[in-house]
């Protein structure tokens, strides 16, 4: 597959050079919250490329290294003379100081972690409207010892004498804390000061401008050709369907493959919503029998994923031939996938770029590499929260916009061991009760995921005067920022009680409900 990017790509107003911080993406998101378009690039980005992009400001991220270590990642020192304002955050600030002739001292037991009140020495420029005593999030070992010529101190903390610094003339700024994290109470104020007052950016990165630009680009890219989209009902593919429908109308064909592992009522809801209500052309492919028969006797979780993934590709290929020909395939690739796959992060040991996160799962919607499609990926500039805004603005209901993540192989991986129709029906009923009760409690939007898992072991119970010998259902409910780590949700007893009562009373073949109180790590969110 070859990926075609439209020529009229929007240039970033702010470039974030990534030195391996876990917060680089977060800085980019914070800048975008001010309606200023930002991109994360590797720290080795050349001066030539920076000049081509001509951002109005550059932010240097933090990073795990010391500027004096042998393999410390460094940017081209020519950056200081481009006439572009620069804000260095933690390591970024130390690098600025180091390269401009100041000095940095090693931690030697003086590392500072956590919240610290900021004492302000110069309440201008970066610190305009930042109150003395504002709390900032510190997380650093090394600190600045001697400022380079032309720099002055803007603020200090009890443990760090140079907590914020500036060369007002050259518009170079540094902070030893993390303005991007929520614990820094006036962090957003600083980011706004930097992007608006210091860099002179305009707030022009809005949902509506994004939608207008994306529509123009898609039209330019595909012309009169036909586009195929595999719709799953998740927020990404749903937003993509709406956006493409608006851009190219009937040239878009969505394919919804029902493998039989979706939640109760979801296939019907999707078809009603997209096809009937919004007249988006959706081809419903009922492949339930194919999938379940392929899973006969398959118990191993990885094997299950492989079988489902391979069958998905087969169905997709067959159906795309039947419905085609198509020139383009639309994919809901998001910005974090782009950053990850271009590997802008830095291995602290080797200084080499590496991916921030290791993706634990690939969607079964993942398609073979050798399909003869060109790609349309209009969401590849967006973070997930931006996709939600775009989806909402295009008219997607909250039910889809706020939908909890759902694995591509669906309920098949939430049934441990072999998948059968009986188990699927049982899990679907239990899962619906969990969703209904969590929604009723008003907690749905505070929770990352809430679902039921079916364990294929029987235990003894008693119902009425009868002995039962049936399966347990696990209630899994977690809070998380990104799915990489998670905590079990401390649900009120009344909700637990209600879910448990309803499941044992209403779902046949289940006589017990247990609540999973394992965080991730060491557990995972799904059971499999
Ligand atoms: P685990 O179980 O690894 O899951 O803690 C982390 C997050 O990933 C979701 N997940 C998937 N998402 N396709 C997806 O799009 C998949 O195959 C898949 N498997 C797991 C999971 O629900 C959780 O939010």
Features:
eight-stranded mixed β-sheet; globular; alpha/beta; 3 domains; six-stranded parallel β-sheet; 14 helices; 25 strands; Rossmann fold; 528 residues; disordered N terminus; binds xanthosine-5'-monophosphate; GMP Synthetase, Chain A, domain 3
Shape: globular
**What fold name goes in the CATH topology slot of the largest domain?**
Rossmann fold
CATH architecture of the largest domain: 3-Layer(aba) Sandwich
Count of discrete structural domains: 3
In the CATH scheme, the class of the largest domain would be Alpha Beta
Radius of gyration: 26 Å
User: Any ligands, ions or cofactors bound here, and which?
Assistant: xanthosine-5'-monophosphate
Description:
This protein folds into three domains: 14-198, Rossmann fold (3-Layer(aba) Sandwich); 207-400, Rossmann fold (3-Layer(aba) Sandwich); 420-515, GMP Synthetase, Chain A, domain 3, CATH 3.30.300. Strands 3-2-4-5-13-12-11-8 form an eight-stranded mixed beta sheet. It has 14 helices and 25 strands. It has helices at residues 24-33, 47-53, 91-99, 187-198, 207-222, 235-248, 266-277, 288-294, 301-323, 335-342, 384-394, 398-401, 421-441, 493-506; strands at 2-3, 14-18, 38-42, 57-60, 86-89, 103-105, 112-117, 119-120, 135-140, 143-146, 152-156, 164-167, 172-175, 227-230, 252-258, 282-286, 328-330, 345-346, 353-354, 374-376, 449-454, 459-463, 466-479, 487-488, 510-515. Residues 1-7 and 342-365 have low confidence and may be disordered. A hairpin with a 6-residue loop joins β18 (345-346) and β19. Xanthosine-5'-monophosphate binds next to loops.
